[in-house]
Amino acid sequence: MKKSLLILSTIVSGSLLTACATESSKVIDNPTPISVSNACNANRPAISIGRFNNQSSYNNGIFGDGEDRLGNQAQTLLISDLTQSGCFVMLERSNMSAIAQESKISGQAQNLKGAQYVITGDITEFGRKTTGDHQLFGILGSGKQQTAYAKVNINVVDVKTSQVVYTASGAAEYSLSNREIIGFGGSSGYDSTLNGKVLGLAIRNGVNNLINGWKR
Fold first, then answer.
1. What is the pLDDT of residue 73?
2. For residue 77, with 0-12 CB atoms within 10 Å meaning exposed, 13-18 middle and 19 or more buried, which class applies?
3. Mean per-residue pLDDT for 66-80?
4. What is the DSSP letter of 4?
5. How far apart are CA 68 and CA 124, in angstroms?
6. What is the CA radius of gyration of the chain?
7. pTM of the predicted model, to two decimals?
């Protein structure tokens, strides 16, 4: 009898442990820039992307390693949003050697298209803060909120004249909150994904302002 109870207990314990190990996944829909039918005209200018630097104080101190990861991430997001807008003919310039190599392998002569404008920009402001509170010295619960803020400038430069013909800015704030009440609820550590989320929103806001305001 005791042996049967021991086996049953082992099976139940194993089932409980198995039940705790769960996996889940989902597809996240990102908001896209303004559609071509709303703000873009038939004349789609050919553009390429120039430098996009992080000019904020974030990761630019004496402890930085000199690599502009935030600026590179902003440039990638900018290319994606400008392409998705459908308002421009996007020209690839960062992989010229690879494109030339593939053209040579395929035996096809390149017929490169020149850009009418170069898009440059900067991350002018970027920061993060964590705030929290405790109810009755933490006995009744506590909360924490992580907030990230970003502001970017986007410039349109005429290739022929080097004149900055238009500039647009974008800004965004993104927050993540957690609350624990009398032992229930979750606590969160530093969430590095907030950097990409707030930067993506700021870039998207800047692209929308560019499309709406630039009279080509």
1. 92
2. buried
3. 89
4. H
5. 13
6. 25
7. 0.72
